[in-house]
Amino acid sequence: MEWTFIDSWIVAAGVLSAMSCALLGNYLVLRRMSMMGDAISHAVLPGLAIAFLISGNRDSVTMLAGAIVIGVVTVFLIQGVHKLSGLDRGASMGVIFTTLFAVGLILIRQAADHVDLDPSCVLYGAIELTPLDVYSTGGLDVPRAVLTNGAMLLFNLMFVILFYKELRITSFDPALATTMGISAEFMHYTLMSLVAATTIAAFESVGSILVIAMLIVPAAAAYLLTDRLALMLVISLIFAALSAVLGHIGAITVPVWFGFRDTSTAGMMAVAAGGLFTLVFLFAPRYGLVSRLVTHALLAVRITRDDILGFLYRVRELAADRAQHPGVQEAQLRKGLKLGFLLKTALWDLARRKKIQKKAGLLFLTETGLESAKHLVRSHRLWESYLCERMGFCAEDVHYSAHQLEHFTDNSMQSKLKKKSRYPDKDPHNREIP
Sign of the CA dihedral 406, 407, 413, 414? Predict the structure, then answer.
């Protein structure tokens, strides 16, 4: 891989555009309006075309103004259709943005017949060409895309910092914001206007089709990693920057493996963002798919382990001589508790913790296991007493609920249950509470 200053400028433009999109994308994700970013990014095409047809040039300020106007109009139209027709917000977005997008394509095609305005550039981006369009400042030639996206990122960052409290409250609870004197509607339309402006700034880098990836994917990945807004903003910016860097590196290296020269950097940026999101989706500590599967598996083993201890305790309790109570066969456990493949794992874990021991093919509680089993059975019977005494669930009705709750009851909760149940010695089934 040969790296030149052109590659550096391409990456700089990609990083700045991705970060400017991701910063606002956090609030779209939090407001459950991810598709609004998609709608605006497509619907601003008529604004671009109309601005060009009126002005006759591709001046950035003119294009930006046209895009912002159409972006705000799009939001108003979606809200209007949603409220007046009764359609859900997603259907309203689909109607408005597809119509405006089609109109924009027609107008851009009309404009393209008279000037170098390439529709494919608007749709797919042309980040590889950004180093060719430069602006000289301080003796240094800087690509206009870097300056535009850098200015957009700075403006978005200032907006988020200045209105951090207002954005947070209106994103999580617009009604509360209104009662506090904060205009949720004003913040909404201001945010949508900035999304439209950011979309236009990113067009040259990633295009209309791919800008939605930069708006949503880094923010969605950050959302799975933290519950704190400030940290979510920082993480999304990091993911956005990584997507741009990895995307360009992938664009100039991966195709070579398959005999091609290179591919679209903007497309690879979106692929890199998707790849990073996939890793987070699978392995995020709290919300990752693998993490949740592992947590559920460990919980299932823990509950199975508790059920085994409770079963062995009740067998011991029924024995005439508790000091010499009979052991339990593994087959009896499997049949009595209706356990499947988790039985072997739970038994191994209990043996490792020295809570059960096996003698002559029979399973017995150790002293440590007996204490754990007592705690579990005590929790179960206290819950039965409480539910019967205070909630009116007695007899067979109470057993299932108590079984669900016994696994999550600590000593403090046991004390509260005992007090609320008026210090019972026996449960509703007349069994002694340990």
Answer: positive
Closest by CA position to 244, among listed 199, 222, 275: 275
Residues counted in the chain: 434
Q: Which of 121, 110, 107, 122 has the alpha carbon at shortest distance from 42?
A: 122
3-state DSSP assignment of residue 204: helix
pLDDT < 50: residue spans in the chain: 115-116
Please report which helix (H) or strand (E) contains residue 357, including its range.
strand 356-359
The DSSP code sequence of 224-245 is: TT-S-HHHHHHHHHHHHHHHHH
Q: Which CATH architecture has domain 293-420?
A: Orthogonal Bundle (1.10)
Question: What confidence tens digit (pLDDT) does each residue in 221-280 have?
Answer: 999 999 999 999 999 999 999 999 999 898 888 877 877 777 778 888 889 999 999 999
Helices (H), 258-288: 265-283
* Alpha helix stretches (DSSP H) within 58-142: 60-85, 89-112, 119-124
Residue at 161: amino acid letter = I
Domain ranges of the chain: 5-216, 293-420
Residues 19-77 have pLDDT tens digits of 999 999 999 999 888 877 777 777 777 777 777 777 766 666 676 677 778 877 887 88
Question: Domain 5-216 belongs to what architecture?
Answer: Orthogonal Bundle (1.10)
